[in-house]
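User: My collaborator sent over this chain with a note saying "see what the structure looks like." That's all I know about it. Can you take a look?
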Amino acid sequence: MTLTPTRAVDVRVRRLTTTLYGYSFLEEFVLLYPVYALLFSDAGLSVWQISSLFALWSVTAVVLEVPSGAWADAVSRRLLLVVGPLLTGAGFALWILVPSYAAFAVGFVLWGTGGALCSGALEALVYDELERGGASDRYARVLGRARAAGLAAVMAAMGLAGPVLAWGGHAAVGAASVLVCLLTSVTALRFPEHRRARAAERRGWVVALRAGLGEARRDRSVRGALLLVPAVAAVWGALDEYTPLLVREAGVADVAVPWVLLVIWGGATAGSLLAGEGERFGTGALAVLLGGGGLALAVGAVAGTVAGLLLVAVAFGAFQAATVLAEARLQHRIESTGRATLTSVAGLGTEVVTLTVFAGYAVIASGHGHGAAFAVSAVPYVVLAAGLAVRSAVVRRRGRVGAEV
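Assistant: Without extra context I'll predict from the sequence alone. Here is the result:
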């Protein structure tokens, strides 16, 4: 049977999205995720040492983020998506085989390197392939569903982590995590890749880097979108690493921590699935999401109870939706072949802010507890929401004045 052009495009888009959803699920279906902070704590690490590991993770990403993004604009993005999970799996294996501060540090370097290789490459590959199929307007919806698949995997891992931990300890959890990394790498081989500018593969990463940064310098809207992504994504992304400790502080037993985290990430999953709808409402809706999420996070964290953690789940849902919308806004504004480079620049900004959050969190949590640290972390979102609301009002007012003239 001969496929019509429209039918052929739909088939290509379907292959892309199904592969993306599978890759996103496997990438996050790591049983170590909900318990590795507990692994570090059980190994005798202090809050400062744990924070220093998270900081090392971020420093690795900061150093490699933009060069790896430029590399993804110069070579096969699919290749990087294959290699990245293999490095991450090697880091997890090291944690379990040699549980010590030094091994944890090396593991985070490997994980950070693997993440940097995939960061920018995945978003750029997906957007370019959707654009090639005339479906770039679906990007926010597709990205939201991919993030939802990843969050569903996180929740599944949370549900399994407790029983597996009780059955085989950290060794069993680690072995399962390494296996999933291998499956993620194999899945990446199914991604389609049709680069529009084949010359990009021959020009080298330095030229690709200059081309991408040049667009950011020339286009004010691109610069604004680049700044918005870390402003939205960084703080709650850093808090994610401390949620098991927040849950433990609320009086939850260790074996039940993954189940409570399941509720929090259920809220984030819902936000991801609804993100595509939020794209229609513009900056005003983004301000509402961020402001409401900030208030919910502060109140829920200060409560210090299991019931208060429900508000943390609401906050994470709002922040997840806002993150998807900010990332989609950036992709829509990029017009050059340096898509992966600019996406990685946004990732770099996120990592830099995340480093600051880790340091600030350690100071606050060491003296006042995890609930207080989460509550203080809500303040930037309220401030950002107010700024976006003012900007939205100014734009609407200018539009009315222009219409009257």
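A starting point for your reply to your collaborator: The chain has one domain: 9-191+204-404.
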